[in-house]
Write a structure and sequence with these properties.
This protein is of the alpha/beta class. The chain has 17 helices and 22 strands. It is globular.
Amino acid sequence: MEPAKLEWAKEWLKTAKHLFVGGEFVPSKSGKTFSTTNPANQEKLTEVALAGTADVDLAVAAAKEAFQNSEWKNLSRRQRAETLNKIANLIREHRAELATLETLDNGKTYQESYVDDLPESADVFDYYAAWIDKIYGESVPVEKGFINFTQHEPLGVCALIVPWNFPLLLACWKIAPALAMGNTVIVKPSPFTSLTLIRLCEIIHEAKVLPKGVLNLVTGDLEAGEALSQQSEIDKISFTGSTLVGKKVAEGAAVSNLKRVSLELGGKSPNIIFDDVKDLDAVVARSFQAMFSHKAEKCSEPTRFIIHESIYDAFVSKIIPKAEAVVCGDPFDPKTQQGPQAHEAHFKKILNYIEIGKREGATLLAGGKPDPLAEKTKGFYVRPTIFGDVKNSMRIAQEEIFGPVLCLIKFKTEAEAIQIANDTSYGLAAGVYSDDAKRAHRVATQLDAGMVFVNHYGCYDFASPFGGVKQSGWGKEMARHSLEEYTKVKSIWVRYS
């Protein structure tokens, strides 16, 4: 693994960071900025431009002009694919820089940034580059005397709002398919984690691989996000974040111009473990990893382990030592297994939910407090926390905590396990562990979730759609399904007699 570029980052952070609009880096119209800080120690990293409605309007105008002049969408398929491949290689060339900034800004370990996030951030551009010449229309069987066919066309200006847990990766998940289909984009990162996207725009700008206005970046808070959802010249908005904010995005889109909307929202995912599993150690190990990696700041993590009562005690005896052994620390230290939570408000939210769990009567089995390092460094470190004897009606089992807080729930029968799993307003992901293939398949088909993992929680591939049902969102990321989110279908009729 390439060493972190901390000295490089120190120099890069000395200058204020601007918006990227119409191919230029510019300050906000108001001149206002906001500070971004290191969650490991609360030290200021740099100042970032605070975009307002006027800045969003300028970005939209730049993106619309770039779309209408047709330079990007009218490139040959080969040229557009080559451009996406170039972006992929640029990310690979600057992998250590981007991973360093991600860790400084978000708090995840450098290994998680470098090994998990950065390779996929690059590879997703290659994946969608390969799709560009594989989108076909249809010849439609209609009445004699007419020819009818369909074609897929780009939507136009796409606003992409990304969260703070995977700032670069989830942005690339959206940018790549949007550009592949010939759209122009405006990206808005979370105000807590803007740095990697600023740097990516710099890298792309310096390499001159995109026409001006095709890629735009606005950094800011709620005002910028609301402006994007309500802007009537935007044709599509893709949002990843909380269900509460997602509803506001959908409302703004509906009131403005009924722009196309896709939402990847929260989760409270179940992981059902039956008593017929033969290798309980392996189940515990994988389930623990799926839950607690990346500080448990993942929408699809299995936050509810639904365990058959006959193996509950054995399961607890195996998972508690794992939680107690986790090393919280400096995310650049190779020995560190868990970094700080991404920002202070979230840190306090997690601790509040831990207190709620105690008051609700759940049994605290591990953690339940900040790591001692938090007081020493002022970092936002929370010990991996496990509650046992949880009732599914408890708030800690129903509400998304988005942090290292796990609920253990007992069940007796298969029907009860399914009922508990589906008893949530969310429906993003679910897991089933059973060595009975018939049972595993039977249960998987009854789980109300967009993704179900059987005997290995957390399987992801660009070729497989990612997304949920119920209040976990609308639409899909990844695969050809994401391309459908960034195109419109036109039906063309031709009379020949």
